[in-house]
Amino acid sequence: MADPKGFLTTGREVAETRPVGERLKDWNEVYVPGSLLPIISKQAGRCMDCGIPFCHNGCPLGNLIPEWNDYAYREDWAAASERLHATNNFPEFTGRLCPAPCESACVLGINQPAVTIKNVEVSIIDRAWDSGDVTPRPPERLSGKTVAVIGSGPAGLAAAQQLTRAGHTVAVYERADRIGGLLRYGIPEFKMEKVHINRRIEQMRAEGTKFRTEVEIGRDIDAAKLRRRYDAVVIAAGATVSRDLPVPGRELKGIHFAMEYLPLANKVCEGDFIAPPITAEGKHVVVIGGGDTGADCVGTANRQGALSVTQLEIMPRPGDERSAGQPWPTFPMLYKVTSAHEEGAERVYSVSTTHFEGDEDGRVQALHLIEVEFRDGKLERKAGTERVLPAQLVTLAMGFTGTDRANGLVEQFGLELDERGNVARDAEFATNVDGVYVAGDAGRGQSLIVWAIAEGRSAARGVDRYLTGASELPAPIRPTDRALTV
Q1: pLDDT per position as a tens digit, 59-90
Q2: Which residues make Cβ contacts (< 8 Å) with residue 70, sequence separation at least 6?
Q3: Which end of the chain is flanked by fewer CB atoms within 10 Å, N or C?
Q4: Per residue in 182-201, is it b (16+ CB within 10 Å) or e — as a string?
Q5: What letter would DSSP give residue 459?
Q6: Taking the alpha carbons of 364, 370, 371, 377 in that order, is the dihedral positive or negative?
Q7: What is the pLDDT of residues 333-388, one digit of tens each?
């Protein structure tokens, strides 16, 4: 145990954020650089090293949280990094982007603020990079087997790194112009600077993984031909089909899916544009969808100089504390104020968009909405609650409905889908096509980054067993595992 009295003597203290006025002027991460290291050892000392560490159950990766908390408390950063990497290929990603179900499951959280697990995690890995403790780990020998990975998001990258280290020759195919999937173009720079992706890619290249950008399987390369070229294939193409809003006026200019809007801002940060083709500058912006993607749109719009930002959510406002129906250690639905919300946005709950209104040039100018409520399990409109919001830019951030079928990948492989429209797989993450496996959102449906990495690691084990007859790679989850909720 780190500090036997740490949870009694030390209060929870989180990373310090830069002033709103300062961070709205740039796209750097919102946290004060270096603010965690002076406090993180004591924060790690709050871990109680529980006899049954429920944080393990909250995390699908099975992260060895009490172990690296102990090392961080003792400032043995190399050992902490080793324990961190034992279960997680990319802790700098999860430490910045994961909503931390491990903290919701923290035993201390029963009656006190939970351990700042995310902050400890990101402190360990950032220090490991700075000190040179993160190095390439190429395989000792090659198996002579080849694997194609379709998609370079967290699931694809995790599967590729595991399989490369197992000795297989791996090529990752990405349809975008840069590697990273949604990590690259779906996550704004202020949440995770892309240097963190870039140096992981360089590590993977040094280990032997090959990368092929601007190649879309199904369009640029026939999927069946790809299967014949490689000994195995991992589909990690994500669930990239955005949920639409079929209401009158949807065809107006200025209404975009979040994933049409966010990547352009990231491309500005990459130096591809001086100004984004779609911008919130000087406009009243409405974001439809109350989740993390919606918050990303809020933060992006404020940095682009929006006149106002309003975020709409059809569900009621969550509570500030756990309800009786969401007991510990489940992951509760709570009211969250993200860094983007701190920067300014009106948040409106229990409303539904009825239609959009445009000008004579066919550009959206207003959004009409009405309050809603659930009665007997049905969503009903409340008469007399209509209102109109000015809106010259609307982003639809209502989630995703499944993997892309328009490019022909599903049909060309001959893949079977499950009842939810995801690629079906068995207990080994194998599809109905021999040698073809699926990992991440393409098989699970829209989920969290920590689940994507766990899926990639688990699918890699299935592929390794298929290629060699046995595998020592870890498989932290099964395809049927789900988050700890009620």
Answers
A1: 999 999 999 999 999 999 999 999 999 999 99
A2: 1, 2, 44, 47, 49
A3: C
A4: bbbbbbbbbbbbbebbeebb
A5: H
A6: negative
A7: 999 999 999 999 999 999 999 999 999 999 999 999 999 998 888 999 999 999 99
